[in-house]
Write a structure and sequence with these properties.
This protein is mainly alpha-helical. The chain has helices at about 5-15, 85-100, 100-145, 155-200; strands at about 30, 40, 50-55. It has two domains: about 1-65, no CATH class; about 85-205, Four Helix Bundle (Hemerythrin (Met), subunit A), CATH 1.20.120. Helix 3 (about 100-145) runs antiparallel to helix 4.
Amino acid sequence: MKPITVLACLLAALCALPVQAQDKGARMYKCVDAAGKVYYSDKLNPDCAQGTEFNRQGVIMKKKEVAKPAQPSKADPVEATPKNPKDQERRDRALVATYTNEEEIDAARDRSLAIPAQGTKTIESKLEKANGQLTELKKQADALAAQKKPLPAHLLEDVSSSQKEIAALEADLAQRKAQSNAIRAKFEADKQRFRELKGTGQSSK
């Protein structure tokens, strides 16, 4: 019998676990994204840089071409909705009434970023811990495979749970970073408008 890789063992056992019943024709996919990270799923992601299909026994199936979704045309950008002049006037009045200089806008921005930054730090800490746990689980699997021992079901379940946890944390982290970027963009726009209203071309000293 030809030797198989640890990952193939993991896939074969995962597919055979009785926890979740699968159809006879079920497939499992190994996907390597553009960053080189490996994911496993019952569906092949069209954005996957490299995709490999396995059957329930962990045997590699013939690779299939997956059509990528059509990219939106850049020729017809969506035009921004023009602002209501009265709404803009109200915003302008509120802006000059709230701040007397650009340093105050920066201070307000930093206060608004404090809570998202704290959440981001917490998620990054959890993600680091989860990646460390997954690394240890893979080391255990490697050791068992080197000794040609079967991989226990609990180890396979732990690997699967760890991968799901990391994916959820990464999605949460991306969302929090996007929120922080939106806050920075909002205050930067306020600062630019403040300069226009005050007739200054650069930050006051």
